[in-house]
Amino acid sequence: MNELGKKTLLIVDDEPDIRDLLCDALVQKGYQTVSADNGANMWRCLEETNIDLVLMDLYLQEEDGLQLARDVRARFEDMPIMMLTGKGDETDRILGLELAADDYMMKPFNLRELTARIHA
Q1: Contact at 8 Å (CB) between 80 and 54?
Q2: With contact defined as beta carbons under 8 Å apart, do 53 and 80 qualify?
Q3: What residues contact 113, with CB distance under 8 A and at least 6 apart?
Q4: In what order do the strands lie in the sheet with 32-36?
Q5: At residue 1, does pLDDT exceed 60?
Q6: Helix or strand (DSSP H, E) at 98
């Protein structure tokens, strides 16, 4: 948690519109946000900022979000991770939850539900 008592969320998504939407909505809900469009920028954010939760797209351009989530879990064991995806089926969700994620939401998602899950 930062000095203002706000939790900091890292949004990892290769779609600028989704990143902007999530950042704006979550700031309005009282969170601080940082964002990354790929794995390299995600790692930079994790090194430079005290992150409380990672929201990550499962399917990034040229990168596997599930593998990135596993790597985050290996390095930051207690880091909460929520996977977001517009693709995938039940098997993907189960694999994501079993291997790395604490929660999983399909795009398009309801912002109220997303913020409720983040708060929980």
Answers
A1: yes
A2: yes
A3: 105
A4: 32-36, 8-12, 53-57, 81-85, 103-106
A5: no
A6: helix 90-99
CB 55 within 8 A of CB 31: no
Locus of tokens 């005290």: 50
Strands (E), the chain: 8-12, 32-36, 53-57, 59-60, 63-64, 81-85, 103-106
pLDDT in tens, 24-50: 999 999 999 999 999 999 999 999 999
pTM, full prediction: 0.87
d(CA 6, CA 32): 6
> CA 33, 78, 16: angle at the middle one, nearest 5?
30
Token pair in block for residue 58: 């499962």
Residue 37 has a pLDDT of 96
